Amino acid sequence: MKNFLIVANWKLNGNIKMISSFFETLKLNLSAYANKSTIVFAPSDVYLERVYQCINDMNIFLAAQNVDINLKGAFTGESSILMLKDIGVKYIIIGHSERRLFHQETNDFIAKKFLLVKKLKLIPILCVGETEKEKQNGQTKQVIKEQLSCIFQKLGNSAFRNTVIAYEPIWAIGTGFSAHPKDVQLIHEFIKNYIRKHDPSSINETIVQYGGSVNHSNAKEFLKQSDINGLLIGSASLNPQEFLKIIRIACHITGE
Ligand code: PGA
């Protein structure tokens, strides 16, 4: 039986009113599905505690969208892994393409964060994926290989045990143009083989999910692919009804 990891990445969206009504709707409708997938919310750091209060009696977990590379000290404006852990965060998204692009985060910098997140026993969700130009040039696998090999270099062959990799083709994020599920399956297979090459027995401990314009109309086709273990959902996760539809789809596939 497949147990999917469904992560809602709210990015720089949401407010107190939206959070209250979102989780009221979820509470009324989720119970039948809640145990069949692992559901995670990644609101802005500002609202992590508020979301934590809302999900407290539900089988839902909390993720941060980013974290600093330092644990404490004179680093104005940052949040540390220790702080996030302190307030109940379980997962941390690392290396989202929006951070790579708008905050100039490099593979090496992201690998350092990944190392620290693992060391402090939280679960990193590492985002990888190619730009449109890289895709056109046939460089997708090479780009992903570089994004992953940087992590292997820092953490050794068992780096990806108990972690999550989110394949997010950059051209599909927030554009309404998702990748084709069969193409995504091939990339996920490639990612899993690459990990298996380093650590033959670890592959069942690595979740590989897809992100990029996922919604209730395309979720089923993605989740039906054998190497897609979950979804990282941006804009469609901001609407509780839309998000519930995706959870229901995941639940039905799990039950098949
Ligand atoms: P999207 O975002 O679903 O809005 O494309 C996905 C993501 O960036 O994680």
UniProtKB/TrEMBL annotation:
<keyword id="KW-0324">Glycolysis</keyword>
<feature type="binding site">
    <location>
        <position position="213"/>
    </location>
    <ligand>
        <name>substrate</name>
    </ligand>
</feature>
<dbReference type="InterPro" id="IPR035990">
    <property type="entry name" value="TIM_sf"/>
</dbReference>
<comment type="pathway">
    <text>Carbohydrate metabolism; erythritol degradation.</text>
</comment>
<protein>
    <recommendedName>
        <fullName>Triosephosphate isomerase</fullName>
        <ecNumber>5.3.1.1</ecNumber>
    </recommendedName>
</protein>
<dbReference type="GO" id="GO:0004807">
    <property type="term" value="F:triose-phosphate isomerase activity"/>
</dbReference>
<dbReference type="GO" id="GO:0046166">
    <property type="term" value="P:glyceraldehyde-3-phosphate biosynthetic process"/>
</dbReference>
<dbReference type="GO" id="GO:0019563">
    <property type="term" value="P:glycerol catabolic process"/>
</dbReference>
<dbReference type="GO" id="GO:0005829">
    <property type="term" value="C:cytosol"/>
</dbReference>
<dbReference type="InterPro" id="IPR000652">
    <property type="entry name" value="Triosephosphate_isomerase"/>
</dbReference>
<dbReference type="Pfam" id="PF00121">
    <property type="entry name" value="TIM"/>
</dbReference>
<feature type="binding site">
    <location>
        <position position="174"/>
    </location>
    <ligand>
        <name>substrate</name>
    </ligand>
</feature>
<dbReference type="InterPro" id="IPR022896">
    <property type="entry name" value="TrioseP_Isoase_bac/euk"/>
</dbReference>
<keyword id="KW-0312">Gluconeogenesis</keyword>
<comment type="pathway">
    <text>Carbohydrate degradation; glycolysis; D-glyceraldehyde 3-phosphate from glycerone phosphate: step 1/1.</text>
</comment>
<dbReference type="GO" id="GO:0006096">
    <property type="term" value="P:glycolytic process"/>
</dbReference>
<keyword id="KW-0413">Isomerase</keyword>
<comment type="subunit">
    <text>Homodimer.</text>
</comment>
<feature type="binding site">
    <location>
        <begin position="9"/>
        <end position="11"/>
    </location>
    <ligand>
        <name>substrate</name>
    </ligand>
</feature>
<dbReference type="InterPro" id="IPR020861">
    <property type="entry name" value="Triosephosphate_isomerase_AS"/>
</dbReference>
<comment type="similarity">
    <text>Belongs to the triosephosphate isomerase family.</text>
</comment>
<keyword id="KW-0963">Cytoplasm</keyword>
<feature type="active site" description="Electrophile">
    <location>
        <position position="96"/>
    </location>
</feature>
<feature type="active site" description="Proton acceptor">
    <location>
        <position position="168"/>
    </location>
</feature>
<dbReference type="InterPro" id="IPR013785">
    <property type="entry name" value="Aldolase_TIM"/>
</dbReference>
<dbReference type="GO" id="GO:0006094">
    <property type="term" value="P:gluconeogenesis"/>
</dbReference>
<comment type="function">
    <text>Involved in the gluconeogenesis. Catalyzes stereospecifically the conversion of dihydroxyacetone phosphate (DHAP) to D-glyceraldehyde-3-phosphate (G3P).</text>
</comment>
